[in-house]
From TrEMBL:
Keyword set, alphabetical order: Carboxypeptidase, Disulfide bond, Hydrolase, Metal-binding, Metalloprotease, Protease, Secreted, Signal, Virulence, Zinc
Transmembrane helix as UniProt keyword: no
Family: Belongs to the peptidase M14 family.
Protein name: Carboxypeptidase M14A
Signal sequence interval, chain numbering: 1-16
Active-site residues from the entry: 399 (proton donor/acceptor)
GO BP term, example: proteolysis
Database matches in InterPro entries: CARBOXYPEPT_ZN_2 (IPR057247), Peptidase_M14 (IPR000834)
UniProt xrefs under SMART domains: Zn_pept
Gene Ontology molecular function, alphabetical: metallocarboxypeptidase activity; zinc ion binding
Gene Ontology CC terms, in alphabetical order: extracellular region
Amino acid sequence: MKVLALFSLIAPLASAVVIPDTDKVITYDGYRVVRIATHGRGQAIEKRLKTLNAVQYNFDTQERIEIAIAPEDLRKFEKMKLEYEVLDEDLGASIVAEGGFSPGSAGRKTISSLNELTPAAFPDLTWFNAYQTFEKHQQWLVDIQSGFPENSELIEVGRSYEGRPINGIHLWGKGGKDSKPAVLWHGTVHAREWISAMVVEYLTYNLITGYSLNDTQVHSILDNYDFYILPVVNPDGFVYTQKTNRLWRKSRQVRSSSCIGTDINRNWPFKWDTPGGSSKNACDETYRGEAAGDTPENTALTKHAETLVANKGIKLYIDWHSFSQLILLPYGYDCNRQVDNYERQMSLANGVASAIAGASSAKTRFKPGATCPSLYKAVGGSTDWMQDVGKAEISWCIELRPSGGGGNGFILPANQIKPSGEEMWQGMLHLLTTM
Ligand SMILES: *[C@@H]1O[C@H](CO)[C@@H](O)[C@H](O)[C@H]1NC(C)=O
Ligand SMILES: [Zn+2]
């Protein structure tokens, strides 16, 4: 058991809580990823699968369940006689091939502020050849900002449960800082969705280099909007996925003696206690927390968004996730409610999907739709809050590559970082010039 001094400072109940030992590295060697056909019996099948040592990938179980099953339980799984196909014979091998997971690598080194770092060379596109550590993402922000000093600043919106900075970069054009409506982007709220930070940074890189090279399209975009870009909003979870458990989703807040972490994307203070669409059980992947907005991460993100709302308002919010290749509009909390400007948001989303499909010979297909019913009921999500409380004109969740677990799910090979970034850049060029 590991008790950090930090916990007793931050969590008032820490002394009464036995912290679960979750520091044991999980390599996923021999785990098999399968797609089970559910034929509308998702809930019943899900219940049976709970008896296995396994990690479920999706929560929309109407048609299928994608799940990684531990080698010791593969025989038990076979005996369930479910209809399934194999997506990955050995998840551990895929994680090794992906290249970014370093079990047991040095501790919990925390940068307390980006100001502590000294800028090095301006980044180039080789950054996008591989997944990167949290520490390197921090340095990257400092490096890219130093090459764009007149039109950007580093921002820190708050601290994670374990005390890491939640930070990013603010970009603006000729009107000067904080003079235009906001474009707000969040990456990596779900720790295992590594592609999201890389794509958000690819877009940032293109905005900065495009502006510096006097690209007229990029100039008009940055002259019209202030960008607030936070590539990793769940740093504790992200660090944990890189050293201990590649498939971790939640934060790392200690709440109970048996389970750790809250789903920050079920914790937003809007219709938070609507039944269904999040979990009250601290052990579940979609655990919503004990009260609306009670995670340090959500508190920081909400406060930051509120300052943008009070200034020039939020024009566009995107929460970047993986995977499924979807462009999701609100609402998640109510499957019968449509956003007031539904036609407009859908028409923009369709335009983005076309731009993505036209970006390369790969013709990647992204599907637009409302979160519920397109994906599933999800309560306490960021896009519902941004739409109704934040009054964002456009509020989306984009689920990046791949389309399904067959493309390796969360373990998207590193050679797909650049293509993912490039197609999304084409999508964003369309959106940012037409919205
Ligand atoms: C971009 O435009 C500015 C202002 O006109 C000029 O000083 C700068 O040299 C230009 N940069 C490039 C790369 O053309
Ligand atoms: Zn996600």
